[in-house]
Design a protein that fits this description.
The complex is a heterodimer of chains A (146) and B (163). Chain A is an all-alpha fold. Chain A has six helices and no strands. Chain A has two domains: 30 residues; 90 residues, Cytochrome c oxidase, subunit Va/VI (Serine Threonine Protein Phosphatase 5, Tetratricopeptide repeat, Alpha Horseshoe), CATH 1.25.40.40. The longest helix of chain A is centred in the N-terminal third of the chain and has 29 residues. Chain B starts with a helix and ends with a strand. Chain B is rod-shaped, with a radius of gyration of 37 Å. Chain B has 163 residues and is mostly helical. In chain B, helix 1 runs parallel beside helix 3. The chains are: A mainly alpha (146), B mainly alpha (163).
Chain lengths: 146, 163
């Protein structure tokens, strides 16, 4: 009885399944899983992001998108990129984002944050003083408020 | 000062979230995440700020060296709800979870005991120890399983278990 039922079921379903399989294989054939981007050296990466944040008429959306994408990379951004981003925050009059950016850098330091973060702060100190930005530690934002 | 500013920010935010969430695009929602340092939008909308906070936003357009630490903190809380330290701070939620799990266990134990006392039928007579002893004697008398089973372990001459 089960065999009969199965045979009926399979003959009814076969056209659907085969159709779907055909469609899938077509779709796979037409999309090539190649990366469009050629390999990029670290220097090119740094220069690309520095240029991104140095764009004179960068807007709020671009700044946020850039910070988020840079945060997603497996690296802590170079101080020169951070300085460029801080200046972009200054052009957009967004002092909060400048502080947030420093917090994000500290977060990206992970287990080595105690080594990396002071180095970054030391490197960007002139820019911080020039723009009048306080670090999260100076503002007490490194301690939870709630 | 900072506390007053923050509570007014929160009140303002709570009063406007419902309105903005109905008509606004759903992808432009504020969210605090450690892996996305910059949310889509600011925590508060400039147009909906109180007058003193609007003045503060105007002051932000000037030189940042003129801002005090309190003002910088207030500006930060206008743009972001939680700092990274706030996000990473322990929430104490584990207590709620542990309590909930223990409560669920207690409820299910209560249901089990209630069922055992009032719903389930009596256990079958084969679980009775007297019955099991009678059955064992019967199997020995029957010479049941004489090679490896119960009868092989019974000494029929001494009428006792083999030592």
């Amino acid at each position: 009885m089960f065999r009969l039922a199965f045979r009926r079921f399979s003959t009814a379903v076969r056209p659907i399944v085969t159709q779907r399989l055909n469609k899938q294989s077509l779709a796979i054939a037409s999309v090539r899983n190649f990366s469009e981007n050629p390999d990029e050296t670290d220097e090119q990466f740094d220069a690309r992001w520095e240029a991104y944040f140095n764009k004179p008429d960068i807007d709020d959306w671009e700044l946020r998108r850039g910070l988020n994408e840079l945060h997603g990379h497996d690296c802590v951004p170079e101080p020169k990129i951070i300085i460029a981003a801080l200046k972009a925050c200054r052009r957009l009059n967004d002092s909060a984002m400048a502080i947030r950016l420093l917090e994000a850098v500290k977060f990206k330091g992970g287990v080595s944050a105690s080594v990396i973060y002071p180095y970054v702060i030391q490197e960007i100190k002139p820019a911080l003083e020039e723009l009048g930005i306080s670090t999260p530690e100076e503002l007490g934002l490194d301690k939870p408020a709630y | 000062m900072a506390l007053i500013l923050r509570s007014s920010v929160l009140r303002r935010f709570l009063s406007t979230t419902c309105r903005s969430s109905t008509g606004a695009r759903m992808d432009l929602v504020y969210e605090d995440r450690t892996d996305y340092p910059a949310p889509h939008v600011r925590f508060t909308k400039d147009a909906e700020l109180a007058e003193d906070l609007k003045a503060l936003r105007k002051k932000e357009a000037g030189d940042w060296k003129n801002l005090t630490a309190d003002e910088k903190r207030a500006l930060y809380r206008l743009a972001f709800h939680k700092s990274y330290a706030d996000m990473k701070a322990p929430t104490g939620e584990w207590k709620v979870i542990l309590g909930g799990v223990c409560f669920a266990l207690a409820v299910s134990a209560g249901i089990y005991m209630f069922q055992k006392d009032y719903i389930l039928p009596e256990p079958p007579h084969t679980l009775n120890e007297d019955w099991q002893a009678q059955l064992r004697d019967y199997m020995i008398r029957m010479h049941n399983n004489p090679i490896e089973g119960i009868a092989s372990k019974w000494d029929y001459e001494k009428n006792d278990w083999k030592k």
